[in-house]
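Marked as duplicate of an earlier ticket. Keeping the data here for the record.
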Amino acid sequence: MTNTIHLVDGEIGGVGKSMWSCLLVEYNNKYDFLYTLIDGDAGNPNVQQRYPESAKIITLAEDEENFEADIIFETALQAPVIVNLPARVSSIIDGWIETAGLLTASFKEKSGIDVCKWFLCSGRADSIEMFLESVNRFQGRLKHILVRNFGVCKDWSHLIPIHYEDTLIEADVFLVGTISLALY
């Protein structure tokens, strides 16, 4: 059996990472799927506040003393993990993924753990560029799911030209394009 680490990323604030994490939790609860919830946003643990009985809070900082990402891996040995990431930690998390060898075939075979990144996007050019940087960094080794938040941006045609679509196809990126995460 493969347990998956679901990293809910977006690199900038306000794109719907916490809301998407809650949607994943609710989906898992509805179907009685086993999972563990980790809120990596220790400065604003709103997902943990929504699910205080089940969420763990960890700190993701660049200094070794405050870097608790290994807890994600240790937890995934027991059950799939949903991780709500704070803004501006992609380089830290991506470095951890590479350094720990989480994407190697031998790691997956020995641990039974897979990793996927749900990337919440606002539709702004910088948000798209951050997503493409992640896709290009991992070159198909990390499953990416692009969640276009139509609640923030209704028209994406000007931000995803044809060469971006080719990149997404080559990297086997999944695309979620019908979600609207705006609160009215």
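See parent ticket for discussion. Strands lie at 3-9, 36-39, 55-57, 81-84, 113-121, 143-149, 174-179.
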